[in-house]
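My hope is that you will study the protein record below before we discuss the fold together.
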Amino acid sequence: MKKSNRRVFIKTAALSGVGLTVGGLNAFGLSHRVGVLSGKRVGIIGLDTSHSVAFTKMLNAQHPDPKLRGYQVVAAYPYGSRTITSSAKRIPGYVNDVKNYGVAIVDSIDALLAQVDVVLLETNDGRLHLEQAIPTIKAGKRLFIDKPIAASLEDARSIFEVAAKHGTPVFSSSSLRYTENIAAIRSGELIGKVIGADTYSPAKIEPTHPDLFWYGIHGVEMLYAVMGMGCVSVSRIHTADSDVVVGRWSDGRIGTFRGTRSGRSSYGGTAHGEKGPIVISPYDGYAPLLYKIVEFFETGIPPVDAVETLEILAFMAAADESKRQGGKVVRLKEIG
């Protein structure tokens, strides 16, 4: 497939709402290396987020959870944002925190990659993710990228293109995807077919990122975890204190996300099904996501398809465009 045609194919696949994972092949036409990993040494890129410390605390605990299968953080590269003050100022404290769990601090990503088998890319600044992911992917290290996978839809596409080219498994997800009852809701076990959903989360805005990429992604990911792919258009109402984004799916279903910037922060929502509505379980911390990450490290099989991740970013980018247009409906296929 010629490069120009392949890029068109990727863009179309990502925004069509159609999953293209078949028989081990992803939407990019290449299979990932799968199979049980021989080593369990974890490296972290980015000590500018509390996620790095939380994951290290669980993995390196004196009596770790058996579900974590013996994986341990052995090395970390601290940077990390140097320009987003709220992130950069955390680095010295988080360096000390992970050192207390026996983690070696290294001065480059190359030095990190020489010491580890798998990588958690935790850098809070999504603008750095593409450049930090590339050497990791080229080194063949299975890679989890924390939210947001990138600070632009185009960078996210590029990450998946490089991963496909080198056959290195990559996935990204918010921890909100794995709240307790979401899987049973999406499968139809609890309320039958899902006919709609309404989710909410904090949606603090960081000027260097598209609005919802920075924090609203938590609630948007929860919405997709319940609804699945297939959104075709969105509209957004924006005020200083909140956002409401309404998505229309190709089968006529409607999903909404409310992002809040005032009052007490919380995460949650309601799913609507054929058998009636159900409240989505409360957020229960990082452990359910870390279990999925470890399973991914073991098998090389991403639990979230690249196509769904890209559609989530397209949803949020379309919401930004709707804001610019005063709340007009924007079709996802127009984004990018």
User: Anything to note?
Assistant: The longest strand covers residues 194-202. The longest helix spans residues 306-324. Confidence is low (pLDDT under 50) at residues 1-25, 28-32.
